[in-house]
């Protein structure tokens, strides 16, 4: 028995991943050069110049990995490694990702393509990659311990399978998952249909991104990996508003936006000004009979959604998670509600002891957007973004869809702020305000309360017994 055969027999269950590496020795000898991208900008769509043609997607603040064709096989090279990700100007995080970024590059293939992915592990611990949603041989599914041994630090493994199902997919580790996903390891995968598909329409613009979340203390660079639910940085593709690119489209374009949720909670994603259809999930295109119009769709943990709409209303339309604390930056969650509390006297007294003391929130939190409060170095502002009419008071999962008549086909550049036709912007009323008529009848209720029928129920007077002189007894 040769060494190789002994190896395969000894690890029967893992033969998938290992034998693929063995059969493609020639390809291994000439590993495709990994392409590294370190800028957080939104890259132009990668027009395929080899392999079968397709309409490329645009990854928000991300990019598509180039490939090479090797005897009809599409070859990619992913490098799992520590990366520095600028989440928004002024705030960088030390994450783990692929090829210089978190998330890693988007992989775009065509239905029926044979795909070979080399994965080099430059992390300090082992890893693996699971190809979420794909039909593939079990041994290529990337579950450490179950379908393959983990990829040890410093080693390269090969995954190889045919992209059988067209649609919207993602990839992420299935080894020390909680840590590796909390550190930002994930990426998008698109399998384009090989021809006209009855349930997949051609669109003019196709945007993709992943939803993720981090727990990074103000002033720190590295996520707290043991956090289970209480994250404080809410991101589209590891970027926060105002660092997230706008989705710039031409008036009349048919637009598709695809997103996957690899955070640890659900996100109701909301588009202003238009209604969309959910045309697909990670399970594939949805049957037409299941499609209805929405303006918000909730996306659960580990799910993907693709939405489609006709961009036929000009303007700068907000697109965001509807959980309002997910559109805010890092903040202390322990701040008590101060709305309506007049604490002027208290503030004065404390200021005597703590010179820089500042009271927050007695008129709401909006002041936080403008306030130049000193924050620790490398900290996301809680509320940020300057719009044409003032502060947007946002952070986290928020961006815009900019619909313009003058946007050229294939031009993804930012057209700037919308110029509103005169008379179409909300304006101040400057006339006399009449005293509002207030109803004085008791509020309606479905049934009388028990107390109302109980004769004994009178106003209860609370008596406080004060201690007598002296301090005995407490
Ligand atoms: Cu959310």
UniProtKB/TrEMBL annotation:
Residues 435-474 are annotated as: Disordered. Residues 1-29 form the signal peptide. Pfam families: Cu-oxidase_2, Cu-oxidase_3. It is found in: Periplasm. One of its GO terms (cellular component) is periplasmic space. Residues 465-474 have a biased composition (Basic residues). It comes from the Bacteria. The keyword Cytoplasm does not apply. InterPro entries: Cu-oxidase-like_N, Cu-oxidase_C, Cu-oxidase_fam, Cu_oxidase_Cu_BS, Cupredoxin, TAT_signal. The keyword DNA damage does not apply. SUPFAM superfamilies: Cupredoxins. Keywords: Copper, Metal-binding, Oxidoreductase, Signal. GO terms for molecular function: copper ion binding; oxidoreductase activity. Residues 90-194, 222-335 form the Plastocyanin-like domain. This is Copper oxidase. It comes from Caenimonas sedimenti.
């Amino acid at each position: 028995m040769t060494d190789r055969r002994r190896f395969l027999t000894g690890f029967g269950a893992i033969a998938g991943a290992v034998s693929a590496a063995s059969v493609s020795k020639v390809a291994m000898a000439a590993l495709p050069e990994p392409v590294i991208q370190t800028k957080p900008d939104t890259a132009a769509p990668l027009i395929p110049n080899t392999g079968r043609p397709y309409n490329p997607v645009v990854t928000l603040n991300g990019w598509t990995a180039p490939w090479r064709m090797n005897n009809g096989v599409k070859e990619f090279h992913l490098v799992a490694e520590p990366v520095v990700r600028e989440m928004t100007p002024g705030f960088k995080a030390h994450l783990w990702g692929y090829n210089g970024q978190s998330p890693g590059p988007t992989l775009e293939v065509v239905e029926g393509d044979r795909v070979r992915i080399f994965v080099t592990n430059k992390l300090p611990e082992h890893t693996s990659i699971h190809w979420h949603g794909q039909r593939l041989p079990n041994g290529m599914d990337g579950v450490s311990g179950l379908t393959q041994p983990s990829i040890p630090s410093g080693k390269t493994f090969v995954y190889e399978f045919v992209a059988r199902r067209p649609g919207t997919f993602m990839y992420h580790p299935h080894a020390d998952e909680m840590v590796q996903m909390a550190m930002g390891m994930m990426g998008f995968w698109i399998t384009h249909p090989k021809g006209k598909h009855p349930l997949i329409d051609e669109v003019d613009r196709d945007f993709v991104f992943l939803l993720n979340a981090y727990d990074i203390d103000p002033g720190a660079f590295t996520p707290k990996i043991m956090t289970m639910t209480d994250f404080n940085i809410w991101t589209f593709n590891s970027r926060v508003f105002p660092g997230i690119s706008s989705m710039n489209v031409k008036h009349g374009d048919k637009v598709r936006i695809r997103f996957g949720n690899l955070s640890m909670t659900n996100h109701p994603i909301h588009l202003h000004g238009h209604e969309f259809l959910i045309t697909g999930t990670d399970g594939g295109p949805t049957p037409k009979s299941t499609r209805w119009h929405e303006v918000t769709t909730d996306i659960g943990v580990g799910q993907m959604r693709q939405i489609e709409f006709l961009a036929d209303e000009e303007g700068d339309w907000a697109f965001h998670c509807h959980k309002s604390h997910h559109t805010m930056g890092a903040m202390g969650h322990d701040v008590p509600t101060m709305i309506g509390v007049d604490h002027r006297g208290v503030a004065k007294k404390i200021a005597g002891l703590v010179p820089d003391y500042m009271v927050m929130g007695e008129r709401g939190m909006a002041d936080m957007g403008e306030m130049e409060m000193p924050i620790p170095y490398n900290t996301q502002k809680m509320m940020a973004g300057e719009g044409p009419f003032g502060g947007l008071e946002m952070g986290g999962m928020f961006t815009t869809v900019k619909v313009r008549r003058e946007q050229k086909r294939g031009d993804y550049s930012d057209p700037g702020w919308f110029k509103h036709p005169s008379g179409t912007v909300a304006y101040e009323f400057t006339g006399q305000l009449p005293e509002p008529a207030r109803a004085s009848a008791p509020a309606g209720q479905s049934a009388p309360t028990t107390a109302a029928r109980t004769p004994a129920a009178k106003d209860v007077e609370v008596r406080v017994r004060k201690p007598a002189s002296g301090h005995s007894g407490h």
